[in-house]
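Practice problem: predict the structure.
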Amino acid sequence: MIFKSIIIALLLIILFSLGAALVAMIKGDNSGKMLRALTWRIGLSVSVFILLLIGQAMGWITPHGL
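Answer:
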């Protein structure tokens, strides 16, 4: 249960970072805030993917068919 909570928290942080990049883009801010926000989003997305792979390998999450 804690593993799934961590994944959900990371996904929410990714959405927040994407929103921060959108705000920086709309404002036309040239200070690099949009680049930093998108860099964080990409890094967090890769880490979520790796965590999902680790979770499946360790048996913490199990895939199931529909």
